[in-house]
Design brief:
By secondary structure, the chain is an alpha/beta fold. The protein has nine helices and twelve strands. The protein has a six-stranded parallel sheet with strand order 2-1-3-4-5-10, sandwiched between helices. Strands 6-9 form a two-stranded parallel sheet. Strands 7-12 form a two-stranded parallel sheet. The longest helix has 22 residues.
Length: about 280
């Protein structure tokens, strides 16, 4: 049997870097190819067609390429929609033509965040910022263009690579006399390993249970709770001050409650997911 051939777009982003690190540490039975945005711009149709035509023989594309600057998106609407929405449409078309399964990474920000219970895949989407709307556009375009797809919604993704809440809090705590962090937004800190294991499970099982899934760690926390645990593990004693979102204004609104229900993925793929505090330990 031929090796499964997998392409990763956005390979220099947080998820892409971690996938590459995982691949380099394993003796993988699959053939992986990593494309940075400099090597493959998913907004360019000609580049998509060149790399992912019928002759490339890719079985899967993991789309990690995304516009992720949540606040900046409020003033760069066109760029966010182009990368997170319209480019996904073209990528899906190429996958349809070349019979490639697309694993697309999406976000909890497609929800409004005003329902205080874990959100399921069938709950109504109603994003409250440009970033969320652009990611939802990508989901809709993908569903229209391609049957063979997996949309994996996640949230509060972190690792020790790249710029994210985990690395930022440690940096700021070493530079500042105190830190102010909001405590009235709830979600689930999700270590990148949880998302990677979900992606690998889909590929290794050759699943045809296409559709949308939620994947994140178990449990819930506020940003303040998350920051507190990071500082505890880091043994950094910088005072941490809880503040309301209204005291910490940002250009983009954030959902107040974006905990994801993972029941569908756990049932379909028969997996257990660790609590966020357990995964945080592994990050250290």
């Amino acid at each position: 049997m031929n090796k499964i051939k997998i392409a990763v777009t956005g390979a220099n982003g947080q998820l892409g870097q971690n996938l590459k690190r995982w691949y380099q540490s394993q003796k993988s039975q699959q053939e992986w190819h990593f494309f940075s945005s400099a090597e493959l711009d998913i907004t360019k149709k000609d580049q998509l067609k060149k790399n992912f035509n019928v002759h490339s023989k890719f079985d899967y594309i993991i789309n990690c390429a995304a516009y992720t600057k949540v606040d900046q998106a409020e003033s760069e609407i066109e760029s966010a929609e182009k990368i997170n929405g319209l480019a996904v449409k073209e990528l899906a078309r190429v996958c349809e033509q070349s019979d490639i399964i697309l694993i697309h990474i999406s976000t909890d920000f497609v929800f409004e965040g005003n329902i205080a219970r874990p959100l399921t895949e069938t709950d109504c989407t109603n994003p409250i910022n440009v970033y969320g709307r652009s990611k939802l556009l990508g989901e809709k375009e993908l569903k229209t263009q391609l049957e063979k797809h997996f949309i994996l919604r996640t949230g509060w993704l972190y690792s020790d690579l790249g710029k994210n809440f985990f690395t930022t809090i440690q940096k700021l705590a070493r530079e500042k006399e105190e830190l102010k962090v909001v405590f009235d937004q709830a979600g689930t800190p999700t270590h990148v390993s949880v998302l990677i294991q979900a992606i690998l499970k889909i590929i290794e099982t050759r699943s045809t249970a296409f559709g949308t899934y939620h994947i994140a760690n178990e449990g819930l926390a506020s940003w303040y709770d998350f920051a507190y645990e990071i500082l505890q593990f880091s043994k950094i004693s910088t005072p941490l001050i809880p503040v309301l979102s209204s005291e910490f204004l940002t250009p983009a609104k954030r959902p107040h409650f974006s905990v994801l229900d993972k029941s569908k993925f756990k049932k379909e793929f028969k997996v257990e997911i660790p609590h966020w505090k357990e995964s945080l330990k592994t990050c250290f």
